[in-house]
Amino acid sequence: MSGVLRHRLVWPVLALVLLLLLNQGFRSDFLVVRLQDGHLYGSLIDILRNGAPTLLIALGMTLVIASRGIDLSVGAVAAIAGAVSCTYIYNSDNPGSFSTAASAVALAVAAGLVLGAWNGLLVSVIGIQPIIATLVLMTAGRGLAQLVTDGQIISVSNEPFHAIGSGFFLTLPISILIAAGAFAGAALLTRRTALGTLIESVGINPVASRLSGLSARRILWIVYIFSGFCAAAAGLMISSNVTAADANNAGLFIEMDAILAVVIGGTSLAGGRYSLVGTLVGALIIQTLTTTVYTLGIPPEVTLVFKALVVILVCLLQSPKARTLLRQRRRRVPVLPETKAAV
Amino acid sequence: MSVLTSPSAPATRQRISRLQGKARYAPTAATIVLFFAMFAAGSVIYPGFFSGQVFLNLLIDNTFLIVLAVGMTFVILTGGIDLSVGSVVALSMMIAAALLQEGWNPLAVIAVVLLTGAVFGLLMGLVIQVFEIQPFIVTLAGLFLARGLCYVISLDAITVTDPFFTSMAQARIRLPGHMFVSPGVIIALLFVAAAFFVLHQTRFGRTVYAIGGGEASAKLMGLAVPRTKVLVYTVSGFCSATAGILFSFYSLSGYSLAAQGMELDAIAAVVVGGTLLTGGYGYVVGSLAGVLVLGIVQTFISYQGTLSSWWTRIVIGALLLLFILLQKVFSRKTRIT
């Protein structure tokens, strides 16, 4: 039993379950999932669907953070991807066709890969600290997105494109399937091959990794390019869902949500240790938190305050100093099951 | 090495080669030269650009950014970062506007706002110091919290009609040669002067530089490292609140979405001004020059007329990159991987 309690995912999962139960307490049909016209509906499906872009970006962010980096530019990259795809569809000769949608998606993904490679170049070859290197694109990125859309909100009507964010396949929303696919892909690639261990090794000590014959540079390229790819996919989902590209607001603050999801999931911000399942749980907690705020009838804008308090709490629990303090306290007061569990 | 580096990895810091002798001034000098070159270029290209008032307008339009950059300089000099400043500016504006609407005395309002900002910074500093969490994640939480509190105060914009605030907004201090500045400019320049004095003439200032140069060494030298690190974030919070008041003087309203992304402008100004992001090197005068460079970019784009406003962000991003690359050259740190 104590072994289960010590597992690092216990607390995030418990928090998620508590949040869901809280919602169920306020709305009795919350946990009900029903099948209608061959599509699954319900609050749980909504949480998964609305959380899909955050989860995608958080996946990329997990690997970046595992390499002791950070990618602040994901929101801007998502906006650029949305802008590129919508502008392409808007200007094409046949704006409703499947081939147009496919080319638009390919263009957006290519843009994401290029921007990810740009971050990788700055971090791995030039050696700029990740937070600053990606800050450049975070600052300039929204400007680039507005350059693409010419400062307009570009609305498109293209059924195949719209399906990415709001279509259904085999009863499930397509966006959930995309996110699940990306999750499975990332998990297989990093945990079934040596890649995950190599990323962690670079995160723990890039110099030692290089000296032991590992191309730390290549690993860094890979994680930033993957992050760019995830951001582009999320950007496609966001713009497809509203069938428009909003260079200013698409993916705004999503980098914060993604970092939050990663941190809640138990991935250390100091690098060298990551958990993709943890990130999945973290992303679900964030989306459920947002939903809870709606359920409880709190003004949705106040969500930010909640998120801030959650970040602080989680960081405090993660910090070695706080754990030491708690442990000392436990030693002095031996009968305190809660504090024991928190350690 | 980076703000993300955990406190347990101080060894990498020593790899930064020291900026010896006069080379210390090179990044800041480069910024000042760049500013004058841009001003000269503008004077040649655009008629009416070459005037003292255009220069003074740069100050008038960027008073809040100057004060923000001053606070940010302290933080970055210690090797930290403060992402919350833009939100604290918005929160200060909201508190000021809401209290003025309640009919509070404007001076009492200003006192409350400044105190709130300083306490906000103090709390973040304490969390960073006591629990040894990276400054970037703590101030990110601060960003969320302050922005969320804005929404709690009011979802709509609140107009400021207080006579003292409006008089500060409209007041112009005449200078010789038909030129003028706003009272905010005087306040901002006083902040720069005070910061210059504190950083170079006091024990606190030297400790700030020492922490940036190497926290472990600073501790071994017996300097008050924990207290200074907490104070640095308090200074930044206080500066953010002051910037909020100055922004209120400028815009005469409180709005939850105000100053979004201003933390990026402040960081960009400090970096462009030649302060090393790893800490330990840099001058507050450089940050002032950095703000002026960002301001002149905006002036260029408005004089050009055909360029859209989003070019500002792209150019600022490019400048940021340019100066980061320059920093790499100056600090001669080559490989990290």
From TrEMBL, chain A:
Highest taxon, organism lineage: Bacteria
Gene Ontology molecular function terms on file: transmembrane transporter activity
InterPro entries associated with the record: ABC_transp_permease (IPR001851)
One Pfam family hit: BPD_transp_2
Bilayer disposition of the protein: Multi-pass membrane protein
Localization: Cell membrane
Entry's Gene Ontology cellular component terms: plasma membrane
Keywords: Cell membrane, Membrane, Transmembrane, Transmembrane helix
Transmembrane regions: 47-65, 72-90, 96-115, 122-141, 161-189, 219-238, 250-269, 276-298, 304-322
The keyword Coiled coil appears for this protein: no
UniProt name for this protein: ABC transporter permease
From TrEMBL, chain B:
Parts of the chain that traverse the membrane: 25-46, 58-77, 83-100, 107-131, 137-158, 179-199, 230-252, 264-297, 309-326
CDD domains: TM_PBP1_transp_AraH_like
Keywords recorded for this protein, A-Z: Cell membrane, Membrane, Transmembrane, Transmembrane helix
Gene Ontology molecular function, alphabetical: transmembrane transporter activity
Signal sequence extent: none
Chief subcellular location: membrane
Domain of life: Bacteria
GO annotations of cellular component type: plasma membrane
Subcellular localization: Cell membrane
Topology in the lipid bilayer: Multi-pass membrane protein
Family annotation (NCBIfam families): PRK11618.1
Annotated protein name in UniProt: Sugar ABC transporter permease YjfF
Organism expressing this protein natively: Arthrobacter yangruifuii
